[in-house]
Design brief:
Elements (H helix, E strand, L loop, with lengths): L2 H14 L13 H12 L2 H15 L13 H13 L4 H39 L3 H35 L5 H30 L1
Helix pairs in contact: 1-2, 1-4, 1-6, 2-3, 2-4, 3-4, 3-7, 4-5, 4-6, 5-6, 5-7
């Protein structure tokens, strides 16, 4: 793993905090996060493309109630990191989508385990109100570290696997994956059209 991939994973872990834990300035949206992360890899065109594709693909899933949508930040980070390692974007993006889905499942488990710690911190804050700043800082640092570890390990595993597999992939598979990759925005638009139609009625 190169220093730029390491920095990309750290930046992605920080952007992921914007989803619910800190600020919530929409930096974690795919259309914003991917071009920002692409500044680290130097491929702005890939960043814009991944950002648009991610936004269209996940736009129909709203984080309402207990629903945790796939992470656009993870999708963009994995896609751009693998692409920076020399893996074609049409392969890298699909690993990014898988990573985004898996991250949301792990995040659900982490939130359940975090609830037990919240009960402990609530008792500490009742005893000492000044402990609230320490509790918030600890929660942010812990979330950042967990995000970084998950994104880095998944990227490393996928990157190692694809670099080993790439020479053995036939040309037909390249063509099929390239075609599938180019259909992603159309799939996203197809899910949005019915939603807009319902809102206009």
């Amino acid at each position: 793993m190169t220093p730029e991939i390491f920095a990309l994973c750290a930046f992605a872990a920080a952007l992921e905090l914007d989803t619910t834990y800190a600020l919530q300035l929409t930096f974690s949206r795919g259309i914003i996060a991917a071009p920002l992360m692409a500044l680290l890899t130097g491929d702005i065109v890939a960043g814009i493309q991944v950002g648009v594709f991610t936004e269209l693909l996940f736009a129909d899933i709203s984080p309402l109630g207990g629903i945790l949508p796939p992470s656009a930040v993870v999708c963009a980070a994995v896609s751009l990191a693998l692409n920076a390692l020399g893996i074609e974007l049409y392969f890298a993006f699909f690993f990014g989508v898988v990573g985004a889905i898996l991250f949301s499942l792990v995040e659900r488990l982490m939130r359940k385990s975090r609830f037990k710690r919240l009960v402990f911190w609530e008792q500490q804050i009742i005893k000492n109100p000044n402990a609230v700043n320490r509790a918030v800082l600890l929660a942010l640092v812990t979330s950042f570290l967990m995000n970084f570890i998950l994104i880095f390990i998944f990227t490393w595993l996928c990157g190692s696997f694809m670099l080993w597999l790439l020479p053995h992939i036939p040309a037909q598979a390249h063509m099929a994956c390239r075609f599938a990759y180019m259909t992603v925005p159309w799939i996203g638009l197809a899910t949005l059209v019915p939603a807009f139609r319902l809102k206009t009625r």
